[in-house]
Amino acid sequence: MREEKISNYVKLCMEWADKFMKMDQEELRRRVPELKDENGFLAITHFGRKFGISKKDGSIHSLDGQSEPDTTEQLNIYTLLGYAKEGAFFMEKWVPFAELRNARPFAPAYKIGETDVFSATFSGHAKELRHALLSLGGRELPQGDVGYEIKAFECMPMRFYFWDADEEFEAQGNILFDYSATDFNHIESAVSIADVGIKRLAELAGVPVRGKSFQMR
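== DUF3786 domain-containing protein ==
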């Protein structure tokens, strides 16, 4: 019988699970206070979905009865646990991805894989996007045809702005982070966090993701 090949992302998740088991739990809870003890898991919410990190083996599982987390969702959680700085705080300074610390090298790929995908996915679907954002507890903002603030994690709010296509212009979207985002997670994780956000919104809106989306396997 041929042995099934394990993807590099699955291996990375397994490595992070081992790292989690070696973390000082008290220190971890100080850095990521949104973690909650729940039936042998540390529970955390990621774009409205409840997941749990097993205190037994460090693996991550769904706690909301929906599908198990994919590797992108898992790594977003693991890197939050690994990179969040003690004493990090929300700055109320909203910036696009390219203006986050150390983001410049990733900005061109981010535009193609995230903001362009966001714009294309919801072109002609502003109503569905609004519904999806509201279903995630979004707070409406005055800018854009659709503008809402939602939480990737409790410590990492994001702002999604969308202008639908008209006779002259194609649909345009933008995603803003608080400047503190890189105090809570790795800069490359900001890319995958935006990616999960777009896919989650598309799922809730009932529309397919369009464009060259970032994807882990």
